[in-house]
Amino acid sequence: MTLRSALRGWLYVTPLLLVLVPFFVAPILVVLAASFMETDGFGGIIPTFTLANYAGVFTAPLTFNLYLETIKFTLFTWAFSAFIGFWIAYFLVFHVRNQLIAIGLFLVCTVPFWTSNIIRMISWIPLLGKEGLVNSTLIGIGVIDQPLEFLLFSSFAVIVAYVHQLTIFMVVPIFNAMARIDKRLIEAARDNGASRFDVVRLLVLPLSKSGIALGSIFVLSIVMGDFFVVKVMSGGGSASVVGAFYEDIAVLQYPPAAASAIVLTTALMLLVALILRTVDIRKEIAR
Amino acid sequence: MTAQPLAVPLRRGGGIARPARRPWTFYVLATAFALYVLGLYGPMVCIYILSFQDIRGGLVFPMKGLSLHWFVDLFTQARTGDVKGSFDRSIRLAVVVTVITVVVSFMAGLAFRRRFPGDTAVFYLMIGSLVAPGLVLGIGVGLGFTFLGLEASWYTSALGAQLSWTLPFGVLVMFAVMSRFNTAWDEAARDLGATPWQTIRLVMIPILAPGLVAVALFGFTLSYDEFARSLQTAGPLNTLPLEIWSMTLNVTSPSLYALGTVTTVLSFLIIGASLGAIVLLQRRRARRRPAG
């Protein structure tokens, strides 16, 4: 590699770094620094060094519950979105024979990604509410005579909203991975007597692993970093890690919030790094 | 989001060459797909319909009357906040974010075509920026601005915070786009005496134009709908998603749905214009291709 090509590479990524350093690296360092300082109780920060904020995070019984709750939402959302995403992608790649139709249907799935998440979340209210469409329909046809209370402002509603928003993040990478599977491979397996189920289990699933990994990174990082879906859809019944330190900020308690933020960010980054070990996403995307 | 629809690898020969009879799994999965699409769009359609009620309207069905009352209410009532101003700010911010995202992602895409020392570090820095919790970055940017004595505003701190989210997306899309660009093409241009700038302007940009439109679509819509990173960085004036957020907490009238309808219409216009531009660019290219 010549010095010139190295310089050229760095020259072209300079604008990217000019954004990422002040708006990603620096903010994380600021939060890290703030997490070791003391609050003066009025929104100010006293520049000292203390581990009290971290001690607070790790000893509070609330922390454990918050993480448990967040992990619960993350796992449910991940499982549902991966399952639905896998079969939607499978249908589009292996069952739709006309390629133009496949791309058209794929577009239909992706359009909501480019619209507002908050709007898509609140759009469940007229459906799941106490007098919502689901309840009134069920009462109307006589299945139930009392409205189901668990539909809205509950953990159920939170998971519905997450799966609604995030399944797209599974569909796209899995679709991409599956579209690259050589169709002759599947025919060969079928000719040699593999059942359709075996083809999915032994061929398609392993070969779309990279897509599932990529989708998982998106889903995990979004759910773990989110707070407004939990806040609105649980109706205050559930909390999340991010939601908790958002409350701290609202009362100007920056250092304890910063400590909690650092713990969460570290946990999330470790999890993402773990997934990245199983897949070289750079090669995956450029393939 | 690694692939915009148009970078999807083309399946030649179309599907599995098996006897024409469709297996039973096709019908099961087709039904599942239909239900998925219904679940995807159904709720959104409900709030668009409900936003057209008249003054008696509530948050749930049945529909009460038919009028544009809540749209007028949205833009005239002080109770619902400064919707018009936030709309205006969000669109201007999204335009700036789009321009920066396209230019910077394109340059980064050029850089990553060849390996250079430290490229992996830059790549993972970008992934980190993508997966970091938005609110954490927002707090960091907000505190940093306070520390430096700068005032947070939507066109400085929020702009930067949003770019830390749109740029990684843009560069990832650029990766997928660039991988379909044959290096022989720009080598040929250079061999024929083109300067590096001429190669980019006359060879690469025209060929990559549909991909660049896709990057622009990501830049605009991700900024226009961005919430978590803007929350602590937008300063005293709200952007549209922040306005919607504060409305979800204290407005319990169909105004909220009317706002949902208005912002979705704009999103759809942008998506439609982008996809239209991509199709147009590709058609023009197909026409130019010599026969044979």
Rg of chain B, Å, rounded: 23 Å
Oligomer: heterodimer
Order of helical and strand elements of chain B: HHHHHHHHHHH
Structural domains of chain B: how many: 1
Broad structural category of chain B: mainly alpha
Description:
The complex is a heterodimer of chains A (287) and B (292). Chain A has helices at residues 3-34, 52-59, 61-95, 99-110, 117-122, 125-128, 133-140, 155-179, 183-191, 196-207, 209-224, 228-233, 241-250, 254-278, 281-286, and strands at residues 38-39, 45-46. With 287 residues, chain A is mainly alpha-helical. Chain A has a single domain, classed as Orthogonal Bundle (MetI-like fold), CATH 1.10.3720.10. In chain A, a hairpin with a 5-residue loop joins strand 1 (38-39) and strand 2 (45-46). Chain B is mainly alpha-helical and 292 residues long. Chain B has a single domain, classed as Orthogonal Bundle (MetI-like fold). Helix content of chain B is 68%, strand content 0%. Chain B contains eleven helices and no strands. In chain B, helix 8 (196-224) runs antiparallel to helix 11 (255-288). Chain B is globular, with a radius of gyration of 23 Å. Chain B starts with 23 loop residues before the first helix and ends with a helix.
What are the key terms here?
heterodimer, A: 287 residues, mainly alpha, MetI-like fold, two-stranded antiparallel sheet, B: 292 residues, 11 helices
